[in-house]
Automatic annotation (TrEMBL):
This is Polyprenol monophosphomannose synthase. Belongs to the glycosyltransferase 2 family. It comes from the Bacteria. InterPro entries: DPM1-like, Glyco_trans_2-like, Nucleotide-diphossugar_trans.
Length: 243
């Protein structure tokens, strides 16, 4: 879970994950030295949740502190590498802002177990998937368009290729060289799914309701949007070059 200035959201997110009936679940927060103290707050929460963990056992919550704000893609890559290296069987990536429904994690895990998919996408754009009413028509259209754009250029059939709520099989992550992932921003989501498909892993989608954040501020900016426009072309060129 990447965080930048999410002090208003993190305690609720952590508590709802810890309350899931998944005994092996461990939460890794990747904080880029948030000025609002999210990193320290995460440490306090980790101390509390790890209180009853036996020494030597895997902590229920841990924090990776990075020195500067470096983009959500790089934060995700760092956290997912760490989880994969530590041998996680499954790695869930989710935002800290309350947009992604914790209640769907069990179903996503069930689909991963039943199908062997490399990645199960919590999807806004399969039948049954819905978007917050707080999103205006313009933003909904933009999101739809960004998805169709990336999928068309890359020739995938993934409906929510830009989505950031994904459950990965550890093996799939270990097959992708996370250090070579070039996206700094949210084109990370597209780059990763494409990398999985190219390595022969299948992608399944489970419908979710996507909530708008109610606390804190969006970190979306123009640079990140431009990167997302260019990235599908770069990925396509790279894959053609290696054919
Ligand atoms: N560590 C780290 N986390 C980040 C960075 N940028 C964004 N995040 C986190 O990534 C998640 C998604 O960021 P948001 O700002 O919500 O971006 P978004 O979901 O694309 O945009 P909204 O729809 O406006 O919420 C949140 O948990 C952020 O705190 C970053 O540079 N570093
Ligand atoms: Mg968000």
């Amino acid at each position: 879970m990447p965080t930048y200035n999410e002090a208003g959201n993190l305690p609720v997110m952590a508590e709802s994950l810890m309350a899931l009936d998944l005994p092996g679940l461990s939460l890794l927060v990747v904080d880029d030295s948030s000025p609002d103290g999210t990193g320290e707050l995460a440490e306090t929460l980790a101390t509390r949740y790890n209180r009853d963990v036996e020494s030597g056992a895997r902590p229920r919550m841990s924090v990776l502190h990075r020195t500067e704000k470096n983009g959500l893609g790089r934060a995700y890559a760092a956290g997912m590498s760490q989880a994969a290296e530590q041998g996680a069987a499954y790695v869930l990536q989710m935002d800290a802002d309350g947009s992604h429904p914790v209640g769907k994690v069990g179903e996503m895990l069930g689909v991963a177990l039943a199908t062997g998919a490399g990645v199960v996408v919590g999807s806004r754009y399969v039948p049954g998937g819905t978007l917050s009413d707080a999103w205006g028509a313009h933003r909904k259209l933009l999101s739809r368009w960004a998805n169709a754009y990336a999928s068309a250029i890359l020739g995938t059939r993934v409906r929510d290729i830009t989505g950031g709520f994904n459950l990965w099989r550890g093996d799939a992550l270990r097959a992708i060289d996370l250090a070579s992932v070039g996206s700094a921003g949210y084109s990370f989501q597209v780059e990763m799914k494409y990398a999985a498909l190219r390595r022969g892993f299948s992608v399944m989608e489970v419908p979710i309701h996507f909530e708008d954040r109610t606390v804190g501020e969006s970190k979306m900016n123009l640079a990140v949007q431009l990167e997302s426009m260019a990235m599908p072309w770069k990925l396509r060129a790279r894959s053609r070059g290696s054919r």
